[in-house]
Design a protein that fits this description.
Length: 86
């Protein structure tokens, strides 16, 4: 199982009008997304982060132990690294 953060591209600042495909795994790959309340809570946090960091969420897919997101920066200031850490 991969743990930790994947490496970032050294010559790319992850800001602006870019699109990203992101995957977030649960802690120790626990299957917590079977619970609709957990999914609703995570979606509300993703929405909050998108609004705060100027990202549109185009698509998402919850699996039992991970989440896939497709997002798009809506301004020059949209910072994917900050979106991820919110």
């Amino acid at each position: 199982m991969h743990t930790g953060k994947p490496p970032h591209l050294k010559h790319f600042d992850y800001t602006g009008f870019h699109r990203y495909s992101l995957t977030f795994c649960t802690d120790q790959r626990r299957a917590i997304f079977h619970d609709e309340r957990v999914v609703e809570l995570v979606l509300s946090q993703i929405s909050r982060a998108g609004n705060e960091r100027e990202f549109a969420v185009f698509a998402y897919c919850f699996m039992p132990d991970h989440l896939h997101l497709l997002i798009h920066g809506e301004s020059e200031a949209a910072d994917c690294k900050q979106f991820i850490t919110l």
